[in-house]
Amino acid sequence: MTTATLRETAEKQFATELAALAKADDKPRPAKWKLSPWAVVTYLMGGKLKDGTAITPKYVGNQRLMEIAVATLATDRGLLLMGVPGTAKSWVSEHIAAAISGDSTLMVQGTAGTPEEAIRYGWNYAMLLAKGPTRDAVVAGPVMRGMSEGKLVRVEELTRIPSDVQDTLITILSEKTLPIPELNEEIRAVRGFNIIATANDRDKGVNELSSALKRRFNTVVLPVPETMDEEVEIVHRRVVQLGKSLEIPAAAPALEEIRRVVTIFRELRDGKTTDGKSKLKQPSGSLSAAETISVITSGMALASHFGDGTLKASDIASGMIGAIVKDPVQDRVVMQEYLEGVVKEREGWKDLYRACKEVL
């Protein structure tokens, strides 16, 4: 009996596309890379191969940014993906690792409590007490494994990691070596190893990167979607994928319903209406595309299990209010003013106005 996992890794979910690209790829590949840089970018941006295989876009945006990111990883420089929350940093990081190394699971998740051992290595303490410090007692972490196997390692939310732990990466990035002083040994990186880190400077609890660490990364800033249509496309594509993977029986949401949520989030994020005629107070949250995806997906689940399967204003209202009202005092005032001044007056939005008023 096989158990379906809640979320497959990128290399498994898109195995057919990766195999087709590998077969069609006749361009030079760096050491240990599964695909050439050209094929990696094609995998990220989408396209059609000569045999007719369609490659779905994983990133909707400026192709040049992806080319710079992939070219960086073909050198000895680490890659730092910067951007506000919701700009697909982790998504891009995972897919790059899947395309280059065929393994996106070598990951260090940055938190305020991430210890130095998470980046370097740990110990099997039972063996350590029994036999003392030996190579068998060393517990290899993702970075050590990536160095030994010549694979990419992902470090998520680098700025959430305490500064002294962040600087553990300096020797790894500059010397491509990981010392094990207890054994008087070191691990030297195999060709193909590199690090992709993600970071943002908008969340509370951010730890600034030291200048020494910044110098060892090439930084690519991922912007928020430039246009309304681009953001709607990103949200719609991801919502459809999530709906299938989670087996939500509701019909795929109409583009116009997604457009309404995207419009609200963009207007509150920018502090003005789309026509530029009215200035708006801004809430404390980031209101990114990722939050829009969450609102629509939750709405689909509501419509599926407690409605007729068609996404309506009542299905998205509670999720939308929850995403906007992070501060129960300040953000509630912002939302109330927006509802009365914008949503109530907008033609065809009465159902959304009433649904939001019931929740707020």
List the defining traits of the structure above.
single chain, 360 residues, alpha/beta, Rossmann fold, 2 domains, 5-stranded parallel beta sheet, two-stranded antiparallel sheet, 16 helices, globular
Strand content: 5-15%
Q: Count of helical segments? A: 16
Question: What top-tier CATH class of the largest domain fits best?
Answer: Alpha Beta
Beginning-to-end CA distance, first to last residue? 46 Å
The largest β sheet comes out as: 5 strands, parallel
**Secondary-structure arrangement, i.e. CATH architecture of the largest domain:** 3-Layer(aba) Sandwich
Strand order of the largest sheet: 4-7-10-3-11
As for the number of domains, it is: 2
Rg on CA atoms, Å: 23 Å
Q: CATH homologous superfamily name of the largest domain? A: P-loop containing nucleotide triphosphate hydrolases
The total count of strands amounts to 11
Q: Which shape, going by the Cα principal axes?
A: globular
Residue-averaged pLDDT = 92
**Uncertain spans, ≥5 residues at pLDDT below 50?**
none
CATH topology value of the largest domain: Rossmann fold
Query: SSE order in H/E notation?
Result: HHHEEHEHEEHEHEHHEEEHEHHHHHH
Output the structural class: alpha/beta
Describe this structure as you would to a colleague.
The strands form four sheets. A five-stranded parallel beta sheet has the order 4-7-10-3-11. It is of the alpha/beta class and 360 residues long. It has two domains: 10-221, Rossmann fold; 228-359. It has helices at 10-13, 15-24, 37-45, 63-73, 89-101, 125-131, 142-149, 163-166, 169-175, 211-214, 228-245, 255-270, 289-306, 313-324, 330-343, 350-359, and strands at residues 47-48, 54-55, 78-82, 107-109, 121-123, 138-140, 152-156, 177-180, 185-188, 194-199, 217-221. A hairpin with a 5-residue loop joins strand 1 and strand 2 (54-55). It is globular, with a radius of gyration of 23 Å.
